[in-house]
Design brief:
11 helices, eight-stranded parallel β-barrel, alpha/beta, binds 3-methyl-2-oxobutanoic acid, TIM Barrel
């Protein structure tokens, strides 16, 4: 065997630069909208990469969209790590953020740091996300101090949706809007590099934005945030559960997939598949030899 080392090809000159925290901050400063989408496996990550999005979130929404749980609450750290590692294998340029699942970070700073470290070490995430303010701001500070970038998430926080009165818009009274604003500002103060605002009135977002120094990504928070995020399966019409008002559907892939599998089933039942172009050939002499050997068995 040759001992010559493999030749490393230089990266293509037009390959997108990897997204970094300074580049995200620069986008905010320049007023360039930040595009974020969720992904939960290799193919969805390849689509996100190909579309040139800036940030990919392995959201705990994957509990519902790919694992079939009724909410985000039951998903385990192990399950999230498996999804995040698969997404990592499909990504090069976008920043990869892993969602810390319910119960994996709230207990103590030590628990939050240990879980965040697993997302970085075992799944290759660049950053983690956690929900709510309050003690979560303290946990975020601990994780940031451990050298792991943290994205915050306030407004409708699905992990604690029951306490918030269900999956509904938040911050619709002056007091509730102030509470959400305080949580966002606390997370920013704690060192979060970015904050997600979910399901709050656009006018509340507009009032809050001048106070936000870090990039703010909205989902159901109006047009004034620095960027937008959508759940991959909502965007593509792949999720058949209840769809939130803010989830714009850009395709009906669920319908197309169903139609394709039904056409396949029809073809098999009609013996129309496989056709000759889907079959392998063998040399006639080899086939004859095989026939006579088989007959002698
Ligand atoms: O889990 C998720 O997909 C999220 C986004 C909606 C921000 O948290």
């Amino acid at each position: 065997m040759s001992a010559t080392p493999p030749i490393t090809m230089p990266a293509s000159l037009d390959a997108p630069l990897p997204m970094t925290l300074p580049r995200l901050a620069e986008k905010k400063a320049l007023g360039e909208p930040i595009v974020m989408v969720t992904a939960y496996d290799y193919p969805s990550a390849r689509v996100a990469e190909g579309a040139g999005v800036d940030v990919v979130l392995v959201g705990d929404s994957g509990a519902m969209t790919v694992l079939g749980y009724p909410s985000t609450v039951p998903v385990s750290t192990e399950e999230m790590l498996m999804l995040a590692a698969a997404a990592r294998r499909g990504l090069r340029a976008p920043l990869l953020v892993g969602d810390l699942p319910f119960g994996s970070y709230e207990g103590s700073d030590e628990q939050a740091v240990a879980t965040a470290q697993r997302f970085v070490k075992e799944a290759g995430c660049d950053a983690v996300k956690l929900e709510r303010g309050g003690t979560s701001a303290q946990r975020a500070q601990a994780v940031v101090a451990a050298g792991i970038p943290v994205m915050g998430h306030v407004g409708l926080t699905p992990q604690t949706a029951t306490a918030l009165g269900g999956y509904r818009a938040q911050a619709r009274t002056a007091a509730a809007a102030l509470a959400v604003a305080r949580e966002a500002l606390d997370l920013q103060q704690a060192g979060c590099f970015s904050i997600v605002l979910e399901a709050i009135p656009a006018a509340v977002t507009a009032e809050l934005m001048p106070r936000m120094r870090v990039p703010v990504i909205g989902i159901g928070a109006g047009p004034d945030t620095d960027g937008q995020v959508l759940v991959f399966h909502d965007l593509l019409g792949l999720y058949d559960g209840r769809q939130a008002r803010f989830a714009k559907r850009y395709a009906d892939l669920g319908g197309e997939m169903l139609a394709a599998v039904m056409r396949y089933a029809d073809d098999v039942r009609a013996r129309a598949f496989p056709a000759s172009e889907h079959c392998y050939s063998i040399d006639e002499a080899q086939l004859e030899g095989f026939r006579s050997k088989l007959a002698g068995q």
